[in-house]
Amino acid sequence: MSATKRDNLIVGLDIGTTKICAIVGNVTEDGIDIVGIGTSPSSGLRKGVVINIESTVASIRKAIDEAELMAGCEIKSVYAGIAGGHIKGINSQGVIAIKNREVAQEDVRRVIDAAKAIAIPMDREVIHILPQEFIIDEQDGIREPLGMSGVRLEAKVHIVTGAVASAQNIVKSCNRAGLDVADIVLEQLASSEAVLSADEKELGVCLVDIGGGTTDIAIFAEGAIKYTSVLSLGGNHLTNDIAVGLRTPMAEAEKIKQKYGCCLSALVGKDDKIEVPSVGGRKPRELSRNVLCEILGPRVEEMFTLVNREIIKSGLEDSIASGVVITGGSSILEGMPELAEQIFNLPVRRGLPQRIGGLVDVVNSPVYATGVGLIVYGSRNFGAREFPTSKSEDSIFSNAVRRMKTWFREFF
Prior knowledge:
Helix content is 36%, strand content 30%. By secondary structure, it is α/β, with parallel strands linked by helices. Keywords: Cell cycle, Cell division, Cell membrane, Membrane.
């Protein structure tokens, strides 16, 4: 692959609880072409947080090797996803006086600095500052304030923070696998880049990314992100329920969930049967598929009820006119959109990666929404931040400061 072509390659690394997925995208004038993909089972994470660095590094290397082989390139730098119950999102506001009466880049930087001047505990780090809107002399709804005249400039932003240790462990795992981390990106923000349309974000939409260990929520309205939240509940809980309820090993429970799983009894035929392997060398049993449905239904219902509670807590339930988009590996489960519609009382669709070329048929699944989204995010914010491969722990802290100084390149 030529050097010029290689310069345009962006790699998204989705470090998930059940799988680690590396996707290579080539940024062209027409958009993004997916040119390589590698996946590996993940065993070093729990509920989206690294609990075993060695296992995580081994899984990352395996996924990267596979992606390098398919894309025919060497991967040096990645955009890594972050999730977990430690993620918190808050809305903030800043105000400044405009000295020269016309908004310059420096004014935008100052007003964001004012908005981010909130008390953040020492053990937490700012991951994203996402501008929602700017207000000039009480004129609201301004997306791009540069060059406009006024006396007073306000900014409304959404600040996403995470535990410093969790972010450090992701960077450390990537570094040990021989990779630089170009940026750490909130997973639901990445997924939204891949599966949501501009119209949906404008009209108001709730994205629910159901992974193995976490369910990530992001609410958009008027084209900007208004609320983010992470629930420590995901597809692994469904697998665990099947293993306990049907008394079968976890690996077999996962296969049964993927092959026969359904969370809505109306979609299951009365005569549908499934074969369930037993534990300890006992003979397999044959059960009605309805039994499986009775196990999964209540858990999925509980999951969506908790999501609904988050939507109500955000106070934006009236703003999501275009409905709910569910994505992530667990959203493939049969009957999920139908059950979600009953609980949210809103239109629901499954989110697949959109507006991409190349190996579209390979990544055309909710499983790859975050990985593809990381590439889209990376292509928009290319070179905005960087975590160099450094063995010293302090570099991550100094990086946090440097990232804050260069944050505005993300948007302007």
